[in-house]
Amino acid sequence: MTTHLLLRLxxxxxxxxxxxxxxxxxxxxxALASASQLHFKEDITDxxxxxxxxxxxxxxxxxxxxxxxxxxxxxxxxxxxxxxxLLVRAMQQLEGESQARGWKLMAQADVESVMxxxxxxxxxxxxxxxxxxxxxxxxxxxxxxxxxxxxxxxxMLLFPTGGMVTQNIERDPLGLFAPLLAKLQxxxxxxxxxxxxxxxxxxxSRHAVAMLTSPYGASETSSNAQLVMQIDSVTKAIEARxxxxxxxxxxxxxxxxxxxxxIKKDSIWAIAIAATLIVVLLVWTLRRARHLLxxxxxxxxxxxxxxxxxxxxxxEVSIIVLGIASVIIGIAVNYPLHFVTHLxxxxxxxxxxxxxxxxxxVGNVTTVGAFAALIPLDATALSHLASLLP
Length: 390
Fold this sequence. Notes:
Blueprint: H1 2-15, H2 17-35, E1 39-41, H3 52-64, E2 69-76, H4 84-101, E3 104-106, H5 111-115, H6 117-123, H7 125-128, H8 131-140, H9 143-158, H10 162-171, H11 178-189, E4 194-196, E5 199-201, E6 208-213, H12 221-241, E7 245-251, H13 252-286, H14 289-313, E8 316-318, H15 319-324, H16 327-332, H17 334-343, H18 349-372, H19 380-387
Parallel strand pairs: 1-8
Antiparallel strand pairs: 2-6, 2-7, 3-6, 4-5
C-alpha cells in the first residue's frame, strides 16, 4: 500500500516537471521564513519539568539559595598589605556604576532588612515551625503556663530595660515563637563577616564583597553572559582608576555562563567532527559527486523543514538541544544513503524506490516512534528535541 502510493506520487511528479521543481522551492522559502522567527536561548532548566508547581519551587529555591546572585570581590593586589579604605573607595565606585546601569547591587549591610527578620518570622511562623515546636506550644498554652508567662512579662516590663522588649511582648506575650527567633539569630551569627564604614568585608578585612542580583536568574546564560561582560568592563575601569585594587567575579550565573560556553564549543566540535567523518566516509564509499550532493541536499532539506515546523509551535528553541541533535545526522543520513547505493543495482530511480520504499518507511516509523516518546515528557527542551525528527 505504501509502496504503491509512493510510486503513484513519483509518476505524478514525473509528468509535472514544473511542480517538481517549484514545490520544493516554495517549501524551502516557507521554511526559511518560519525558521527566521526562532529565538535561540540557553536555559538549562528547559530540560526540567514544565509544570507550575515545579516552576514555583525552582523560583523559591533560587531566591532562598542565592542562585541568581553574582558576587563581586575586591582585593588588594598586594596581598601582604591591609588597605580597607582603598577597598571601600572601590566599592563606592562600583555602587555608582551600578546605579547608573540600574543594577541591583548590595555592597553595604542592609540593617533595615535585618530588623525586619522578627516581623517576617511572626508573619510566617506556621510555615517555619516543626512538630516539636507545635508540641511545645501545646504544653505552654494551658492555664497555669499562661499565667506564669504573663507574670514574667510584667516583671520584665518593670525593669529599666523593659522598653527594649516591649515590641516582642506585644507580638508574642507567651513566648510561643521564642525558639524560632533564637534559631534565626543563630543562623545569622553563622555568617562570618565584618563591617567597615557599613561595607561588607571578609573576617580578615582583606576582601570587600558586593552582591549583584541578576535580573535574568541563574539559568538564562545568553543574557547573563552580556551582564558578566558588562561587570568585567566596569571592574576593569575601576582597577584602572584605583591602582592596587583587583576584582574577582563569581556566583551561580557566572558558572552557568562558563558551562554554557563550554557546551556550545563542545556541540560545535561534535557536529563538525560528525559531519566531517560522515562526508569522508561517503566520499570514500560513493566516489560520485552527484550522489554525495543528493545526500547533502536531502539532509539540509530535512533539517530546514524541522526548524521551520518547530517555529510554528514555539518561538524559542534551546541551542543546547540543537547541539544534542547532532546525533540525528548519523540517523538521517541512512535514508538517502540507502537510496543512492541502490541506484547502481537498479535500472531506474523508480525501480529503486519500488524495492526499498517499504523497508525504509518501516525503519523511519520506528525511528520517529522512538523520538516521539519524548513528546509526552513535561519538559520544553525534550519536546523540541522530539521535533527534530529525521
